[in-house]
Amino acid sequence: MKIRSRLTLRFVLHSAIAGLVVLLIAAVTVYWVLMRLSEINLSDNFASVGLERLVESSKLGEDGIVFDRKLLEQVKHNNGWLQSLDENGKVEKSYNKPSDVPVQYNPGELAAYWRLQKDFPYDVYLWIQEKYGRVYTLLYGVPKELEPLLQAVSEEGSAYLDGRLILPEKIGSRIRARGGYAQLLDPEGRELAALNRPESIPGTYTVQELALRSKYPERYEYRMDFAYDENTGRTWVVGLPNKAEGHSSKNPLISAEMRIVLIGIAGMLGAVLLIFALLSFLNALRFGTPMFHMLAWLDSLGRGAYDEPADRNGRPRSRLSSGKWRRRYSTFAEVMLSMDQLTVILRHDEERRRQTETLREEWITGITHDLKTPLSSIKGYAHLLAEDAYDWSPEEVRKFSAIMLEKSAHMDTLISDLAMTYRQRSGIHAPQMEEVEMNAWLGNALIQAAANPEYGEGRIIYQAPDQEITASIYRPWMERVVGNLTANALLHNSSDTRLTVTLSEGADGGLTIIFRDNGQGMDEQTAANLFERYYRGGDTASTTNGSGLGMAISKGLVEAMGGQITVSSAPGKGTEIRLSWDAQK
To answer: Could you tell me the pTM of the whole model?
Structure first.
């Protein structure tokens, strides 16, 4: 898998995991909020919600109906009691039942308690539901608190002083112990006196205020009841805090339900932020560390340090001791391999640059020597001819002039070759190429090359093919190549060396010319640098013919004509130089 696909897959996978985690957190948050709201609803409205849930969650066992233990604990927490009645009004099961609660009800008695037609110290709630093929009747009761207190206050609290309601100590203690309050209002709803009234309770009531607070106590911090005295027009008010259920808000601006929702949202946002912070940290380790490593690697390459940054043990940071990629670096394997290859190439280029600098210095020294030697001869003969003390004969003058011309020609060849190498370096293209029959042409070129008296006779063997071979070449350049390769084979080997030249045409129509000698051959380094501009494998002073640039020029000319040149040699086994051109398409 390519790095683009791998990175895309990783980021998509991480995003998908993050999305699933966020959805899971949201689901857990919603579940928690619903459970808390259910608990609040159960606590605040147990008479309706709790009794229904008791029936729905009940199970039929060997001993009869079995209720949910948690719901029964809520009954106890509300200071209530619970009874299960059969169809005849007989109590089958009871839970937390006080001693003053009956164990048998007749139809009229139960209805009277429920409809408040008969005095009973408990508020009674009835729930009837069919399940398991039978009708279940649940009777739930909680002690009356407001009604007895209101009755006691209205009967005993006729006196007040300086806005303070005077009540019997027993009644006042009951009100204070339960965190409640009592008020006496005039006919206009203004407070005449009060006992233990909190600041959140108004001192003056409108018709709407009094009605809403008594009808919907769950909306406020206190539940209240009132009694109106027709004779005086006064109103007695008694209130108790909504703390029996334990979930109502103490702040009238934020209900318990809203507080649960806000807590859930805050918790979800905090968990999501934590997850994304953790994911960012993991991504920084997973993707940031390799990137910083690669940046440090590039920086070291820019400073000329051609090695991968290593750890304290001197081992590359991206690899294990076994040589395998570390897990966090495996994602960028292609990039790391490219960086490694770039490092090797730059190191090799730096080594070649240093070698080239050394070779160039040596070549400059050699070419300077090659230029100064003929120049010294020309200068010496020029001084002799210009000297008045000598009267040179015409034969001597012609001899001196011939030597000077020879040395000048050698210098011209050196300078031309040097110019040619720099032209090749800038990139030259062959002039108008022409179709040439190579069999006859190469034979004539070798005859002209063999005419050089320095080569000796019979040292060039031409193996011509039977058929004609046509190729597109530029004649002057090709003649230069043949002359350079011939000189390289015959001048730098012993006098008994033979050069065999073979011309052949491949099955695909390509052209091949092979120059093979049986001379002393070359070592691996000399063969590898044979076509380098600044490399001189032999002594620069071994011959005055040539510039020492012939092989570099030959390579450039062959490549400019669309061909390739290669060398194969070994010490004591001769040298083979192969020129090849692909078939024309």
So the answer is: 0.46
